[in-house]
Design brief:
This is Homoserine dehydrogenase. Residues 7-111 form the Aspartate/homoserine dehydrogenase NAD-binding domain. The protein has helices at 10-22, 48-51, 69-78, 88-105, 121-129, 143-155, 159-168, 177-180, 183-197, 215-223, 285-300, 350-363, and strands at residues 2-6, 27-32, 43-44, 56-61, 82-85, 109-110, 134-140, 226-237, 240-251, 263-270, 274-281, 314-315, 321-327, 336-339, 342-349, 368-372. The protein is an alpha/beta fold. The chain folds into 2 domains: 2-110, 3-Layer(aba) Sandwich (Rossmann fold); 121-372, Dihydrodipicolinate Reductase, domain 2. The strands form 3 sheets. It has a 6-stranded parallel sheet, sandwiched between helices. A 6-stranded mixed sheet has the order 11-10-7-8-9-12. Strands 14-15-13-16 form a 4-stranded antiparallel sheet. α3 packs parallel to α4 (88-105), α4 (88-105) packs parallel to α9 and α6 crosses α7 (159-168). The structure holds NADPH dihydro-nicotinamide-adenine-dinucleotide phosphate and ligand LTNE7NMQ. NADPH dihydro-nicotinamide-adenine-dinucleotide phosphate (NDP) is lined by residues 7-12, 32-34, 62-64, 68, 86-88, 113, 117, 170-171, 173-174, 283-284, 288.
Length: 376
């Protein structure tokens, strides 16, 4: 089977390498590259040479960004070619449109690499959904921020220093503020809501990253038996759903608190199977390339995911409610002392907590916030 790779960066090179070294029966016959870098006979900078080629059955998009990725994916699907993509930004923004186009031409959209790097998260949700309702999910979905927090905790490293390391290792987004400010996890959470809850997710879910996390916050929370992790979360109940991305002060002995390096740990809860946890490298050339090649092989084997967002669950932010800790110079209503430098505000929805955090940040730009879920 002939396939084309769009974008020959970290992930595109990983896909090409895994196929050439480990997979028979699949050939990367074309690579879309920028005009000044056509160093391989398979490379072209003209997308028409790929999308008009009837021998190419699958287009593997790993350019990143919204355009031209959005247009190229739609063109490929409209021509009946199936698309494998690692580009969570474009899937989160256009999931519904891609699914409608894929269904119209009987093409497939395969998105395993868009959430959790090398972890078979999307495929596992699809398997669980054959029998169960997924009632909630929660997890570390960003390798870069986990790498940063882990480096700060274990090596006492400076935030900017560990971020530079994550960039050098190919974990970070082109603009790493997408990692640090939670936008990357928001995209992955939106995609997970779509796959797990059969619902086109609200795009404006409350999103807070770890930009203002300081070593002192980690020390203060550790003294209270907590570690800090950036989590994407979603829950559905009684025809409604909620989702959020925010730092969470997890119990220090929990699996989440102990996830090292660029690893991700994502959990779900479902009707009859109960809780499941998925652990692996959430970023990097070979883990992510592996997830894309798995999608290509699934397609070749006739395994075709089918998405349907007709269910229309209602957006109900109050379904995600917990206590929150804040480090801020702003005075917050209902705040009570929590630990060195931090106050506690009880019973906020994630949407309300984000509003309180925006107020705190308007007074004190260095403010930090974390959800404080009940233990047990
Ligand atoms: N790196 C990772 O660990 C993971 C990445 N992803 C996602 O995978 C995608 C790719 O990531 P990554 O490989 O890290 O990114 P890179 O920036 O390393 O690679 C993207 C490549 O595509 C090229 N490119 C951009 N636009 C075009 C175009 N129009 N035509 C041809 N080539 C183009 C870029 O060139 P140039 O640099 O010159 O612009 C670059 O070489 C992103 O969506 C990312 O979010 C998902 C999971 C993990
Ligand atoms: N920048 C992302 C890459 C994978 O999705 C991350 O760090 O997780």
């Amino acid at each position: 089977m002939k396939i084309a790779v769009l974008g020959y960066g970290t992930v595109g090179k990983g896909v090409d390498r895994i196929i050439s070294e480990r997979v028979s029966g699949v050939e990367v016959s074309r690579i879309l590259e920028l005009p000044d870098r056509l160093t391989d006979p398979r490379m072209t900078s003209d997308y028409a040479q790929i999308v008009e080629d009837d021998d190419i059955k699958v287009v593997v998009e790993c350019m990143g960004g919204l355009e031209p990725a959005h247009t190229f994916i739609l063109d490929a699907l409209a021509k009946g070619k199936s698309v494998v993509t690692s580009n969570k930004a474009v899937v989160a923004a256009y999931f519904d449109e891609f699914v409608r186009q894929a269904n119209a031409t009987d093409a497939s959209l395969l998105i395993e690499a868009s959430v959790g790097g090398g972890i078979p998260w999307i495929a596992s949700i699809e398997k669980v959904r054959r029998i169960d309702e997924v009632t909630s999910f929660s997890g570390i979905m960003n390798g870069t921020t986990n790498f940063i927090v882990d480096g700060m905790v274990k090596e006492g490293a400076d935030f900017d220093q560990v971020l530079a390391e994550a960039q050098a290792l190919g974990y970070a987004e082109r603009d790493p503020s997408a990692d640090i400010d939670g936008v990357d996890v928001r995209n992955k959470t939106i995609i997970t809501v779509g796959v797990a809850f059969d619902t086109a997710c609200e795009k404006d879910i409350p999103t807070t990253g770890i930009r203002t996390l300081a070593k002192g916050d980690l020390d203060a929370l550790r003294a209270m038996g907590r570690g800090v992790k950036l989590l994407g979360r979603g829950v559905q109940r009684d025809g409604g759903y909620a989702a959020a991305v925010e730092p969470v002060a997890v119990p220090i002995e929990s699996l989440e608190a102990n996830v090292p390096s660029n690893f991700n740990l994502i959990s779900l809860d479902a009707t009859t199977v109960g809780p499941l946890k998925f652990y692996g490298q959430g970023a990097g050339m070979l883990p992510t390339g592996n997830a894309m090649v798995q999608d290509v092989l699934d397609f070749a084997a006739g395994l075709r995911p089918h998405y349907d967002f007709s269910r229309g669950l209602e957006w109900r932010p109050e379904l995600l409610t917990s206590d929150y800790v804040f480090r801020t110079k702003a005075r917050l209503d209902g705040a009570e002392p929590f630990c060195e430098g931090m106050v506690l505000v009880r019973g906020l929805s994630a949407v309300r907590a984000r509003e309180v955090f925006e107020y705190a940040t308007s007074v004190d730009a260095t403010s930090f916030m974390a959800a404080l879920p009940q233990e047990g």
